[in-house]
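Human: Not sure, check this?
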Amino acid sequence: MSYRYRPLQYDDEIRLVEIRPDPYCSGAIHCEIIHRRRSDPSLKYEALSYTWGGISKSKRIVINTSCEFSVTPNCYDALRRVRHLEGTRLIWIDAICINQEDNKERTRHVRAMGDIYEGASQVLVYLGEADADSKRLFEHISEVCGRNDGELYGSYDDKSFRVPALVKTARAVLQRPWFSRIWVLQEVFHGMGNVIVVCGPDSTFWDVFASCCINLCASGADGFDYYSPRLPYALNIGTDNSIRSLYDLLCETRHANATDDRDKFFAILSMVDDKDVATLASYDQSTVMVYTAIGLYLLRNVKLVLLLSVRHCHSRYPALASWIPDWSYTDDNDPFWISNPIPPIDDPKEYNPELHVLGCCRRNSAESDHLFHPVLSVSGFRAGFITSLGATFDFESYSATCLEVIKRVWESKGHTNDTGYLPPGFTVECKCCDIKVSQSFADRFAKGYNEKEFRNLWCRRHGSGGNTCFNFEFVEGAMRNCRLFLDENNHLGLAPREAAVGDAICVIEGACDPCILRERPQGDWFLVSGECYFEWEPDEPNKEIFAIW
């Protein structure tokens, strides 16, 4: 007989799983599901943080003596690992304690998730079962570091421990699926310092684990940057638990994965400084409607800074307005975001864009996304148009060639390219057949361009001022799936792969960077990218209004 959920009667009511002991660690998992109120001062429970590990529920546990309940293999392993040999253990675990078939209940729990994890006596982070790398890492942690009365101690700065084998070991453990998931961030965030990392039979405090991994991974010439995309964002939690704005968090956690694209927003709600955004969370709304609601909220709060988060066209959700970010893209964020934050807007009133909702548009159910499409009206001018394009930067297949192009621009130190150099394999993809320009991109690239412009752009975005070492990791992130372009005056720039000959390079009042716009047959505009790398000497521009669809 399958288990049937009993409805929750009170706003603060939750279900908890009471795991029965197994002294032999070999039997089936037996549990009881009980209902409790979070307002009960006598309530004491632990919360489990893990990854579902797929949607296939191929394992069975026994609930309330006789009812079968299907769970994923990773959930099963986590329950088995945290089960006591003697005595029961009271756990909150999302896959069992939330009726996943009830969207209203799921929405309700999303809005209360922070309170649930904050109310737990401790949070158990289950990374999976042990392997050679995890055992070596946990042995190292137990030898050199720890925590006493809440204070960290250990040889974190002792370079003798930063041997290549240990660095490789730490990086291997950080590649486990748990570190890439979006939901785990708030679970650690609300652990309030009472977080235990469990990997097979090994365990340690979260802050000890995180500090040790950061120390190991910061070693060597190719060490991790604190907010580098290569370093799991979760490791920073515990060292900095300050709440953030919704826009900052969406950008900082964009690389994290979610099975449901709406969870890129839902999973961080409890970490946001404005608690009213929780009202935007609803599993009854489609992804397009949820992202549209987020976009309208952010437009009121960060103005046209929002456009920085649109770097590629919306191929996954074509019904989404082109100016609203698609947060499901894990690589669609400016990698320079943390190292060089946006400048504050001194007078927000000066940059008020207009929002027009078409006459036929209104809020609708998930089946009618196309009937609610906000059109953004902004003022600005055209700085130029794309006349030729280079090849897309593909670092997986042509890493050496791509880095050769980047290195040449960087090492030019502002001197004009006059050698006719063209990197091997960096061939032209598009000739200027639609524009009255005779040369292809390859011809014009080889004949010379202002390298100083492009180099200065990278320095500015990296916050280096041109005086420090060039960080290839950041630049690779900025150029991935992008391509060089030339405008009608032979100025060199960088745009996403979707850019096309004839696209306009536009400067929008209130935006941080130039944008790439494409004119639609209807006379309005489509946002290809909310940022491109481009510098020019403006004459006297003609201001115009752009209606961005």
